[in-house]
Amino acid sequence: MGKGKVTIKDVAKVAGVSTGTVSYALAGDPRINEKTRKLVEEAAHKLNYIPNEVGRSLRSRKTETIAFVIPNTSSHVFSHPYFLKLLEGITEVLEEYSYNLQISTTPSEKEEAKAYDKILRSNRVDGIILSSASLKDRNILRMVESGFPVVYLGKWHHEEVLTVERDDFRGAYEAASHLAGLGRRRIVHISGPLDHQESVDRLEGYKQALSDHQILYDASLVVEKDFSREAGAAAVEELRAANVRYDGIFAGNDLMAIGALKQLKRMNIAVPEEVSVVGFDDIDMADAVTPELTTVHQPMREIGRMAAEKLLAVLQDREVPEKRSIVSTRLIIRESCGGQPQ
Amino acid sequence: MGKGKVTIKDVAKVAGVSTGTVSYALAGDPRINEKTRKLVEEAAHKLNYIPNEVGRSLRSRKTETIAFVIPNTSSHVFSHPYFLKLLEGITEVLEEYSYNLQISTTPSEKEEAKAYDKILRSNRVDGIILSSASLKDRNILRMVESGFPVVYLGKWHHEEVLTVERDDFRGAYEAASHLAGLGRRRIVHISGPLDHQESVDRLEGYKQALSDHQILYDASLVVEKDFSREAGAAAVEELRAANVRYDGIFAGNDLMAIGALKQLKRMNIAVPEEVSVVGFDDIDMADAVTPELTTVHQPMREIGRMAAEKLLAVLQDREVPEKRSIVSTRLIIRESCGGQPQ
DNA sequence: CTGAAAGCGCTAACAA
DNA sequence: TTGTTAGCGCTTTCAG
Fold it and tell me: What top-level branch of life does the organism fall under (chains A, B) (predicted)?
């Protein structure tokens, strides 16, 4: 039996009905007589018939495929541990609905526009889940506003667009407050790239926490880095070189926190005795390091699930309960801070 | 401009040629006159024409999409850190060739057969990269032997099938030899599930290394686990409960090694002073833990690249240089063993 | 070198 | 309740 050789015509012939009837019967259309349906199903089963999805898509204008798009500008996302959790959540839901998943990374930045156009208009996918990107990225804007079904993973300043967001502000607020509550007064913030909304929000949460604890904001304690371990280590090194004194670090993500931890160890600075450290993300690595990292947990798998559910609701013309969904974070206290807040 | 509304007909009309000519012109067919080609290209550009891939696929019987299939039986792969590297390698190559990537996880085991059939015969993808699976999995067998273009990531006992393999035996051999070279004599092996070829090969490499170092194989030192951190910790705990004495651990992967490390720490057993530990994989976590983990590096990104290259060679009727590709591993010596071998 | 036209496999509108 | 048929958008023979 050659692959894909048996078509709807063959089934129709064997069942002694027309192709239209086969199509309806297999789709479970109520208009088809029970007996005929049985007949068709038997024929299909005997021939081991599997519909050609391409023919189906062309006619019905549906692919039952969605794309998970990772913008070039945030290509780092791709190598981040939490990306897997996101993917897990998405695939779980898609499996339930028998949808397919396509992964689209965009190539070089200059070809991005074309790449997006292609995704949107080549009719290969019905909708997309868009990973968060730089605020400067104009292509994202076009994508989101194209009218094509999109769920954006992050905050988007537009009424109509569907999003699943973390509460970055609140997460950061709690993290920094925790440090302040432990008596830390000179708290460094190693932020992610500030052209990313999440970084901005985390920085704001940090500032608010300081303010609420009567700590004066000191710009020399904030360093902007790129979310990598190396950057976290570099930040600590730079602070040393600049002779900055501090007793706490709130890092914009776990990788940077872990890099910082390592550098502190190299410099023989004791964590948490001399410096308390908090991260953000709660990746698997966070409780593998020594000391175990206190961090802000974000339910990435759940976010993936929600995004997929939301997108499918649109595609299947079901009610979308809320345009913006905001999932909350949770502070996980481990060893890198030294005890519960006072 | 509505999405995907402009078709080849529109372009033909504007350019004043037939649709066939447009098709050829845009494909760069040399039969088309230079002038006509220009004309068509201009029209296409002016209309912002993007071909409907579904129509194209139906006619040409090519989707320019490949699937990366993760079998249910090895669903753990999905949550493993190196999976991302694999994905990175694959997407890099696919981007070069403008191919699309579909991720297929198979649902519950009982529906696996049907799911595979669908992937193979619904004409949605041109070929697949198949992640390694249980040796017992009959569905994999069918898939590999179906004649559909498949690249299998692992060893496969069949002449015709294309594979990209690690040298698990040699990697394990070197790991265990390293321990033996450090004077370790009672070396535990925490193996992965033994219905996976890679686990079997690593076990064999371990045995060979023992034998070459005049160490008697002791079955009580081998425990079979499931590749997770928890399992690694559990293994160490079980050894304690059974009062087994040992001075080295070779774990079947890094996660188990890291789990073991943590449990040893809980039990106040010093690494590497009392027990030397080696892992396998060299995931990012390996050099984040304390002590940093000595492990066997496998170039997952390169493996992904090779698999994609190989599959594309088949799909594009190019020469496939070798059916089986075996990439070698490399022992990375860090802190968890205590020094260079004698 | 280009146009006309068949047809990939399927669905859905219309007829019967 | 079922059959007939047009046509989704494209590629690729076959003529010219």
Answer: Bacteria
